[in-house]
Design goal:
globular, single chain
Length: about 260
């Protein structure tokens, strides 16, 4: 695979991943959406199908890493770091594009959610109105990036490490194509189901980023978008869904080399 193929494949694939993944969250949490309150099952299966779709689209070009933690794991496994920066760049750009497209698709719902008359009407400077605005802004950030239910650095970091460890170990052990440089056809389905399993079993504490680009790229877009009353982007937490998955991916690759090679 050429560097241009890798960059294009990862950009397109990660954009599709985030468009569909952020899209299902937006469908569930935003006002004026037909799928509002569909629940956690809808979100976990939506993300799983997003992975499946993105992998099938991008695999012929780049091997469909779509995740810096996966790229890191494969680089450690193969001891080949030559294309890592290209993968990372495509993944981050694609994640930002996907988040922007999700915003376009749900533009009306974002504004309906954040400009409710009870929140931004007369008297919005009252304590009650400020609290209401904050309550509405939380789900909006959740469309773009993850956040913990209990804010504790050690616990949140451990959850992201463990979830990503499971994902990357699954990719390395049964999801690679014959060349060993990305996901094959069967690997796409296996990995999608693994993502669903992680969401159902390990997603409760932090929202299971398990992908640095998936969290960082959309968080940047959230910070830049002209959304009214959107609240902050929670940059104090943002390093955890970046560092945790990278650690988890590295540990998975180390175990793979120790136990499976």
């Amino acid at each position: 695979m050429s560097s241009s193929d890798i960059f294009i494949g990862e950009t397109i694939g990660t954009a599709i991943l985030i468009l569909l993944g952020a899209g299902v969250v937006a469908a569930v949490v935003l006002k004026a959406s037909k799928a509002r309150n569909a629940g956690w099952l809808a979100i976990t299966f939506g993300w799983g199908f997003a992975v499946l779709t993105a992998v099938y689209i991008s695999a012929p070009l780049s091997g469909a890493h779509l995740n810096p933690a996966v790229t890191l794991g494969i680089a450690i496994k193969d001891n080949d770091w030559s294309n890592v920066p290209t993968y990372f760049a495509g993944q981050l750009l694609g994640a930002m594009i996907g988040a922007a497209l999700a915003w376009v698709a749900y533009y009306g719902q974002f504004h309906a959610h954040l400009t409710d008359r009870e929140i931004v009407g007369p008297g919005t400077q009252s304590t009650k109105a400020v609290e209401a605005r904050e309550a509405q802004a939380g789900p909006v950030l959740g469309v773009f990036s993850t956040g913990p239910e209990i804010r504790n650095v050690a616990m949140n970091l451990a959850t992201e490490i463990i979830g990503t460890f499971v994902l990357v170990l699954a990719v390395l052990t049964q999801g690679l194509n014959d060349n060993g440089n990305g996901l094959g056809t069967l690997g796409a389905l296996i990995t999608a189901l693994v993502v669903v399993a992680i969401g159902l079993s390990l997603g409760g504490p932090t929202g299971y980023a398990i992908n640095p680009a998936r969290d960082l790229g959309p968080r940047i877009v959230h910070a830049l978008l002209p959304l009214p009353n959107k609240g902050g982007s929670d940059w104090g937490y943002a390093w955890i869904p970046v560092v945790g998955p990278l650690i988890g991916g590295a540990i998975a690759a180390g175990l793979y080399k120790l136990a499976f090679v």
